[in-house]
Design brief:
With 268 residues, the protein is an alpha/beta fold. It is built from ten helices and nine strands. A seven-stranded mixed beta sheet has the order 4-3-2-5-6-9-7, sandwiched between helices. Strands 1-8 form a two-stranded antiparallel ribbon. Helix 7 packs across helix 8, helix 7 packs across helix 10 and helix 8 packs across helix 9. 39% of the residues are buried.
Amino acid sequence: MRVRKRYGQHFLEAAWADKVVAAIAPAASDRFIEIGPGPGALTLRLAPRVAHLTAIEIDRDLAADLAPKLPPNVDLVEGDVLDLELSGFSRKGPVRVAGNLPYNISSPILFRLIDIARAAPADRRLLDATLMVQREVADRLEATPGSGDYGVLSISVQLHAEVRRVLALPPGAFRPPPKVHSAVVRLTFHPPPPGLRNERLFQDMVRSIFTQRRKTLSNALAPFAAAHGLSAPVLLRAEGVDPGRRPETLAIEELVRLAGRFEPSQPG
């Protein structure tokens, strides 16, 4: 089987595909979207255990090889997951997502899934996503405040999903073996914190302070506060946050409250 390097392809060995499906824990009533089915290691194991599966494959040769092997409850879509309107695949009810994400575009796919989860109506919501990613990405996704891996990716994802690592995979679980270890993580989507009124402002603030994560919070917040005509020390005092803390020590709830201080209705 030819591997296309530009797609970051690494295909699961059969024994590990069984372990991944067990970690996904599909139910007979589930509807799934699979990202990057490749030769079908997960697809052909998931399909008999679920109600419906939409498999999205960017490689036309892999799609052509896989198509004749698929059972009737699988729809194969050829295209780039970042370009497709995924919400259209959930018209018949809530869906789950599974996939072996190409390491070079794992973050854009994660953010795309979050956008879909935010926008989907309750009757067609995105329930969860069980995804294979590079181990270092998994570390960042599930990182907690105060750890070195905690940052913009951790906060952006945990704002909308509970993250849990469900399986670790060595390089030998794939062919060709990648140069890194991998992990399967499950993102279970939930509504954002009720105090979050302006997510764009929140994300801008988080990115700004984490570019200076080793500075004190007072200094890290100063450029963003000044750009809004406000004083970082005054804002932190009003919120009851120690200005000597580092940005990476702030929990999401604290960051949400701090971002609320930049809302016009909030006194500085």
